[in-house]
Amino acid sequence: xxxxxxxxxxxxVTRRRGYLAGAWLSLVLVPxxxxxGFAAAHLPYLIWPYEEGSGxxxxxFGGITTGIFMLILAIPLALSAWFGLRAVRAGTAWGWxxxxxxxSAAVLVLAVNVIGLVVLLVSGTPLx
Length: 128
What we know:
5 helices, mainly alpha
């Protein structure tokens, strides 16, 4: 006779699926938050008297707009990683996939912005 299979409670299966679904749903919402972040990053132009794309904006102003964009984009990425890790802790290894994708996307966005800042500082001219 073989050993009896480990019984998994239906509540545990539901919790695992819920965390995994939350992780994937958060990843699916990244493009929506990308456009929301892009729109929100243009709000400081309504407050300060800088013309968009003129190249006259100071570096701190670019930091504000970039920071707004990155904070809004970080919301679904952080939620995806959090739900993915919760799914892993609940017992499903598939939670690692959305976690790794979200972390990779966050690193990529950060790297692109840092490279843009370095190019801006080295060239002394705006990137547009």
